[in-house]
């Protein structure tokens, strides 16, 4: 069964919290739940960290928690250290019945840095991608044993951004590793979202339907702007 959810960044942004800061939390929940009718909502900086408090809050508006961003640092720490680090987030997922853990490697990302152009993001060699993929797969296998599917979020400013990198990452992982396919990030990263999705649809566990403002993304590339500026 496909469930339809949303993300609170549509109201109050997590990367730049000044965007939407004027919108009350109650308005987000009311519009996402009773008014629009989404089944669930992802994580956001407005929600309580306590798993049960989160579950109770969302339930008041007919919503369920449908996972949220988790930053891995597997380029700089071991799989064992990552497993230890994920425990609070995993507890939140389990308490709320989430089946998916949204993961993105953030040990060297630039998407949160206003002073670094997104064009200057880090890149991995073929050998480095293979080693990174092996670590992600081991981490995903652990999560699978806990009843949670790892869905990797290809994202601007990270080591998995372009369509070629998505292909290389998917080739370096599997079968425990699945994909969070994001139409907006795929397009911004230079890919044809339909073509990329056709190649990897069988391993997509979570989907972000997202638009871009093409004149803005073209300006970001041409002028060397950061993701936050975009």
Strands, helices and their partners?
Layout (H helix, E strand, L loop, with lengths): L4 E2 L18 H11 L4 E2 L9 H9 L4 E2 L3 E4 L6 H17 L4 E6 L20 H20 L3 E5 L9 H10 L4 E6 H6 L4 H8 L3 E5 L5 H10 L7
Parallel strand pairs: 1-2, 2-3, 4-5, 5-6, 6-7, 7-8
Description:
With 230 residues, the chain is of the alpha/beta class. The chain has 2 domains: 7-65, no CATH class; 67-230, Divalent-metal-dependent TIM barrel enzymes (TIM Barrel), CATH 3.20.20.150. 40% of the residues lie in helices and 14% in strands. The protein has 8 helices and 8 strands. The protein has a 5-stranded parallel β-sheet. It has a 3-stranded parallel β-sheet with strand order 1-2-3, with helices on one face. Helix 3 crosses helix 4 (126-145). The longest helix is centred in the middle third of the chain and has 20 residues, at 126-145. The radius of gyration is 17 Å and the shape is globular. The mean pLDDT is 96.
In summary, what is this structure?
The chain has 230 residues and is of the alpha/beta class. Helices cover 40% and strands 14% of the residues.
Shape: globular
> How many β-strands, per DSSP?
8
Low-confidence stretches: none
How many distinct domains? 2
The helix content, as a percent range, equals 25-40%
Number of helical segments?
A: 8
Structural class: alpha/beta
CATH topology of the largest domain: TIM Barrel
Most strands sheet:
5 strands, parallel
**Beta-strand percent range:** 5-15%
């Amino acid at each position: 069964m496909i469930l339809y959810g949303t993300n609170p960044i549509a109201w109050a942004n997590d990367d730049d919290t000044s965007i939407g800061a004027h919108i009350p939390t109650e308005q987000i929940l009311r519009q996402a739940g009773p008014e629009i009718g989404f089944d669930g909502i992802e994580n956001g900086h407005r929600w309580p960290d306590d798993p049960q408090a989160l579950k109770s809050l969302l339930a008041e508006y007919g919503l369920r928690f449908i996972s949220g961003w988790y930053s891995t640092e597997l380029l700089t720490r071991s799989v064992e250290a990552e497993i230890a680090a994920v425990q609070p987030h995993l507890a939140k997922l389990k308490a709320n019945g989430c089946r998916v853990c949204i993961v993105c490697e953030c040990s060297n990302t630039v998407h949160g840095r206003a002073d670094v152009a997104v064009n200057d993001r880090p890149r991995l060699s073929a050998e480095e991608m293979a080693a990174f993929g092996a670590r992600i797969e081991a981490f995903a296998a652990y999560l699978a044993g806990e009843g949670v599917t790892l869905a990797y979020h290809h994202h601007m400013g990270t080591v998995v951004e372009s369509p070629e990198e998505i292909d290389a990452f998917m080739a370096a992982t599997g079968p425990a590793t699945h994909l969070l396919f994001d139409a907006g990030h795929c397009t911004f990263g230079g890919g044809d979202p339909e073509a990329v999705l056709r190649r990897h649809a069988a391993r997509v566990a979570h989907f972000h339907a997202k638009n871009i403002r093409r004149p803005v993304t073209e300006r970001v590339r041409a002028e060397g702007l950061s993701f936050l500026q975009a």
